[in-house]
Amino acid sequence: MATLPAAAHLMENQQGTLNLVDARGYLVISLPVSALRGVDDNRDGRLDSRELQRHGGSIERDLRSRVRISDGGVAAPLEGVLLNLSADEQHREGGPATHLVMLAVAMFPQPPSRPQLELRVFGRSSAEQSYRFVATLHSAAGRNEEDLRQFTPRSPRHEFFDSSARRSSSSSRENSRLGNRQ
Known about the structure:
The protein has helices at 49-66, 169-178; strands at residues 2-3, 15-21, 24-32, 67-71, 74-75, 78-85, 99-107, 115-119, 131-138, 144-151, 157-159.
């Protein structure tokens, strides 16, 4: 497990992306600290850099079991996992954060045809019970397709780019902007 310096704003809270390029899936997701177990030593509802350093290994193991990517039911191992404190409005350089950003690479044995994400990391507050998640499929021909999904405790698993959800990136961007897809 590696950590990054807490400076850049990597991802909005409760959002994520999965960029699929050939046989790899590049994951970035912002996760609430309140969903993590046994890591908030001072019980302030936030994670600071010392807590992240101290519990980074256990956080990574926990997240690997609760954030799963697969293709047609075959799990894709997560490699190169990086954890970073989210640079939200409450987080100052080195100070505590309400969210943690996870970056990882899913390694598929071949380019995925039915990529699926299972997400079981929901926080305590109502605002932490839902994620907005965009998957982008990058084709060798230069065409990109996007699929926007909403993850909740009642709907923690989605297959991306299934026949009913398949559409072009321009259509997806328009639906994303208008908030028409759940």
